[in-house]
Amino acid sequence: MKLDARYPALSDLRSRAQRRIPKFVWEYLDSGTGSEATKARNRSALDQITLLPSVLHGEFTPDLSTSLLGETLPLPFGIAPVGMSGLIWPDAERHLARAGAKAGIPYTLSTVAAAAPEDIAKDLGPHAWFQMYPPRDEAIRSDMLARAKNAGFRTLVLTVDVPVPSRRERQVRSGLTQPPKLTPRLMAQVALRPAWAAAMAQKGMPHMRMLDAYANVETANLPPNAHVGYLLRTSPDWAYVQWLRDAWEGPFIVKGVLRPDDAKKLEELGIDAIWISNHAGRQFDAAPATIEVLPSIRAATALPIVFDSGVEGGVDILRALAMGANFVMMGRAWHFALAALGTDGPAHLVDLLRKDLESNMGQLGAKDLTNLTAPADHDMFQL
Ligand SMILES: Cc1cc2nc3c(=O)[nH]c(=O)nc-3n(C[C@H](O)[C@H](O)[C@H](O)COP(=O)(O)O)c2cc1C
Question: Which of 132, 10, 11, 32 is nearest to 83 (CA)?
Answer without folding.
Answer: 132
